[in-house]
Design a protein that fits this description.
about 220 residues; alpha/beta; about 10% strand
């Protein structure tokens, strides 16, 4: 008899036997002893950045989860300046962690600030709307784009342009308008694209977004 075949047969019989024992143990109510709970965190206080934006909703959902992990003092800090300087507050330890655009935090890390990037978020927060004249990102060369100058959105746009070989400093003209003005200018064909942020990018302002889509399709 082929020993290899015998080994395989024994292996199958052993597996079936072990499976049967496991099922019997379940029926009899036999359970393994519970594992030791993880020790509580060394620091029980955590400070998060408070901002009334859709993107930061997971931070508020996380409050109960943080308390379950042993954080007994969960604080949401509100600053009068709003979103201005959130990366600097994390870099100076005024806030323990938050969700925000990665670009300004990378700039803080370059300055030597003790910042750790834990995970990627903000998927789909920023969206580029363009007229029918723009069929690919390279078509933005020589065009006018509305964006908040100096904002993380502009930094993201600059990185996207660089990816396709365009220099944001000379190949594209940036202008700054309010969200409503930007959409109206785009619909009128007076600018070529808008780097939209929430809530416009998510379509919360349905009137403006629907009108924009109609204009672009027409």
């Amino acid at each position: 008899m082929d020993n290899r075949h015998a080994d395989r047969s024994m292996s199958r019989r052993g597996f079936v036997g072990a499976l049967g024992l496991a099922g019997t143990a379940g029926l009899l109510g036999v359970r393994p002893p519970p594992a030791d709970a993880e020790p509580p965190p060394e620091t029980t206080k955590v400070r998060l950045y408070k901002f009334p934006g859709l993107c930061l909703a997971p931070q508020y959902v996380a409050e109960d989860l943080l308390r379950a992990e042993g954080f007994t003092d969960v604080q949401y800090l509100d600053f009068p300046e709003g979103a201005v300087g959130v990366h600097e507050r994390v870099g100076s330890s005024a806030v323990d962690f938050t969700q925000w655009y990665g670009v300004p935090f990378i700039e803080e890390i370059d300055k030597g600030r003790p910042i750790v990037l834990l995970a990627g978020v903000h998927i789909g927060c920023t969206e580029l709307f363009a007229t029918e004249r723009i069929r690919a990102f390279r078509d933005l060369k020589g065009k006018t784009v509305a964006v908040a100058v100096g904002s993380p959105a502009q930094s993201i746009l600059a990185a996207m342009l660089a990816y396709v070989g365009l220099d944001h400093r000379k190949d594209v003209r940036f202008v700054e308008h309010s969200a409503a003005e930007s959409i109206e200018l785009l619909a009128a064909g007076k600018i070529d694209a808008v780097m939209a942020l929430p809530p416009i990018a998510q379509g919360t302002d349905w009137r403006f977004l629907n009108e924009l889509k109609k204009e672009l399709k027409g």
